[in-house]
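Hey all, sorry for the wall of text incoming. These are the three entities for the joint prediction.
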Amino acid sequence: MVGGFNAYFSNIFEVASTVFEGMAVTFSHFVRKPTTIQYPDRMAIRVQDTLPYRYRGILEVDLEICTGCLACERACPIDCIVIDAKKDKSTKKMMLNRFDIDIAKCMYCGLCSEPCPTGSIHHTPEFEGADFSLESMMRRFVKQPVAAYKPKKVEDDPEVAPILERGMRYLDEFADPAGKTGTDS
Amino acid sequence: MLQQFLDSLIADGTLGGMPRDVAYLIGMLGAGALVVFGFVLNISGVTTFVERRVWARIQSRIGPNRVGPQGILQWLADGIKLLMKEEAIPFAADSALFKLAPFVVTVGFITAFVAVPFSSALVIADLNLGILYITSMTSLVVVGIMIAGWASNNKWSLIGGIRAAAQIVSYEIPAALSIFTVILITGTLSMQGIIQQQGWGPWDWFIFHSPFTFVGFFITFVSLLAEGNRTPFDLPEAESELVAGFVTEYSGARYLFFFLVEWGNLYVISAILVTLFLGGWQVPMIPGLAESPFWLNLTQAVTFIVKSYAGVITMMWIRATLPRVRVDQLMSTCWKYLLPIAFVNFMGTALWVLIWPEGFRFAELALTLLGFSMVVYFFYRVVFHLRRSGAELTFSPLS
Amino acid sequence: MTEFSMFPVVFYLMAAITVGSAFGVAFTNNIFYSAIALMFTLLGAAGLYVMLAADFVAVVQVFVYVGGILVLTLFAINLTSRIGDVSVSNRSLGRFPSFLVLGLIGYSMVRAIRTAAWNVVEVGDPVPTIEAIGDAFLTQYILPFELASLVLLAALVGAVVLSRKELKEVRG
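and here's what came out:
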């Protein structure tokens, strides 16, 4: 009987003290900074800028250094790259008439950027490609027919040089598995 | 005060010779409509928004903050969305009763506001039995819930409705007993009368009047929480257990009614607690205030609303802290713990009032000190938890 | 012409609610509808109490009758399985004898109401009744008050005993 009596009061005391402690804990949480990250418009840094260098995002082509070798088209396992490159009879130059990448089909495997000799086709950190229309999934990189690039020993064109440099660095650090830097994968 | 106002209007002839009774009727309906549409519905809506923000901050996240600046229009958006939803009535449900239930519940809730005193002059009707009237009108909500449970023709709604009714009816007893404990001290049931016997400072409030009323405050708080179907007693609408309890089949505007009543009921509960135990609208008598009735009433109303809203936020805080109790634990809490303690309180207060009719000042001050030290200890524990977790603080409620 | 008073309007409204709902209680086939009509009857009765300036009785009527007794009635209806299947008509007497008895009782009731010596009091301002009732309960009518509480206690204990006994019989 006395045991039951004690249990009764200890129950009440336990309830009161645990609720008190619990409310102290929740109040301490109330005054803390919330851990929510308000993606995408209230971030401190753009997410695209926090991604690693080798992130395989949406593909992009730098037409200034594309040689028209069609290595990427052959390498793509899904055939999402469609290139139209013809030698122009009159000017004896390789003309690129069409360079379409269907990013809806693309599986971002990176097999196309590996064999590129100049690094013109490369992955960007961009990943927000969602849109309301199916047509925007087809990225057409050729607005009007341009001449393909002819690689030279030393590139001296000031506009093309930085692009070529970026492309070659990309190839070194990413597309080439052994890598000039010596790191594997 | 309303009567004087109306009498003056009749005397001026602005009401064009309308019979006196009709003028009173329209005046009362107008005042009621003003309170309901201007205050009650808005406070219910804003409470949903405040609850979501408070709850979220306790859970280390930000609540809704996109609709309108800081999300303050979220409740309007939710309300409009619910109003525009299709009102589906199940085929086998009793459609007349299905449609009746939200109205019974809303009537039970809104009629309670007639006696809630916002300031010394702002009360629709200072009924002689104010607190008894409020308690009895909120018991109409039970009937509405049972009708909803039956009319949905759904096992879970039925069980939810019965559980809700059992819970509310059981907890009415310790709630009423603890309320009447305070009535023993005041000798009047009128809400204004109860407030006028308290003072502006915590040592004059009834919560610190005697150890029995101190315990009685917590008993009333717990019982009224259970009456309002709030966690930890929200089994009737347990989202994870009974689908949605008695509101399973409700959608659209009818759902809106039920939830308006639930959030608004928080405010009524808080108002009852503030009136009985926490001094109501009493403000210190600053010399400038007594002259101008406008400023006096405004200060008093603001004090009352701030205090009640603090109670509402405490209830949200408890909701974020405690898990739900099982139905048998709920019943045993009421009948085995709250009821005997309420009885002991009642007798203790009766003895106290007999021995010290004017109140025992030393006890009042000692209890105020006890309450104050509890608050200090509470913040000490909060600081302990903050130090232990080493988290970053922010006091701004903004995201 | 005397000034228009809302009193008769409200009285007839309350009376209509009360009597109409009472008809509903008696004549509906669906038992749940009867219970809800009972709720309206009790609320109408509370309104009539208010008109008689019996404020305490009105509020307690809502509290106890609607919030307690009606809720328990609804409990019973909800928890009884297949309650809609019960046919609620008693065929023992038939219609003509029942109308005859009804007519006789009705006539005698109306006759009694009309010829009784009612104590007609002037309608004055309503005074709060609760203090008077409380005083009366604890001074003049204390014996009936205590006896009534004893009866309630006996009913409570009896209910507990009855339900316990049934459980024991089921088990054993």
